């Protein structure tokens, strides 16, 4: 049975969840004025500079650091930003990105030899029903292209989660700062190739206050603070214990998107969220509840 998180790491995981959930509102605000690939490049310019001159490089081979930076930051956010630009609502993006949990669980078995219990498999099946509900409602504001891009972002995040476990105990802030340094050049070139110089110039010179405030939120809270905490957790606890907590991100994501962006919450969205959160309960608390039932049956306190 995966060990339950102690109180302090549990609270830290919930802080990360709250930051990442609200982050989708900030991203949507930035995407109003900034092209998605450019936004990805600029975000990590500010993540890495000027801290890279003050934070020592993690004691890792460059190959490992480049793999982490490309999967955790470059690929994940490029796909996610493009998907949201192509019509994926912020609240649903926060829900669909949690596909990474199931991929993380599978990869933790294959790459790390960790154990996934039957109750976690059941949780994955329940949550998968939520993703199916979203898939059945593509069209209108939920585009197929946006759906595919966000799911690809989830796969990239999942690989990076498991890769983080293989890195061992590394300074989490250094990992974020130096991993982020991988992003600006390839994403800047991708923006130049696919979005064009005119769109880049227009975005940088005409972006409004909301876009820059959203960018500041994603840089300093969502990336530097939240990813540092997340890397610290993954270095010390099994991926199968930590990653299911991200299924709470859609709660904050959908609520904050409804409050600040006016996104609607029809019955099918709530149904999808209920399936996903139900899967989280099974993944995280199912083994523990089974243990408590056994303890009660034998008369143990």
What does this structure look like?
Helices cover 77% and strands 0% of the residues. Helix 6 (118-135) packs antiparallel against helix 14 (267-297). It is globular, with a radius of gyration of 19 Å. Mean pLDDT is 86; it is low at 291-301. It contains 14 helices and no strands. The chain has one domain (7-297). It has helices spanning 7-31, 36-48, 62-85, 90-96, 99-112, 118-135, 144-167, 172-180, 184-194, 196-206, 209-236, 239-242, 249-261, 267-297. The longest helix has 31 residues, at 267-297.
What structural keywords apply?
301 residues, disordered C terminus, globular, 0% strand, mainly alpha
pLDDT under 50 segments (min length 5)? 291-301
Give me the oligomer status: single chain
Mean pLDDT: 86
Largest sheet: none
Strand content: under 5%
Task: State the distance separating the first and last CA atoms.
Answer: 20 Å
So how many helices? Answer: 14
Give the tally of structural domains.
Answer: 1
Compact summary:
By secondary structure, the protein is mostly helical. 77% of the residues lie in helices and 0% in strands.
List the helices and strands and how they pair.
Blueprint: H1 7-31, H2 36-48, H3 62-85, H4 90-96, H5 99-112, H6 118-135, H7 144-167, H8 172-180, H9 184-194, H10 196-206, H11 209-236, H12 239-242, H13 249-261, H14 267-297
Helix pairs in contact: 1-4, 1-11, 1-13, 2-3, 2-8, 2-9, 2-11, 3-7, 3-8, 4-13, 5-7, 6-14, 7-11, 8-11
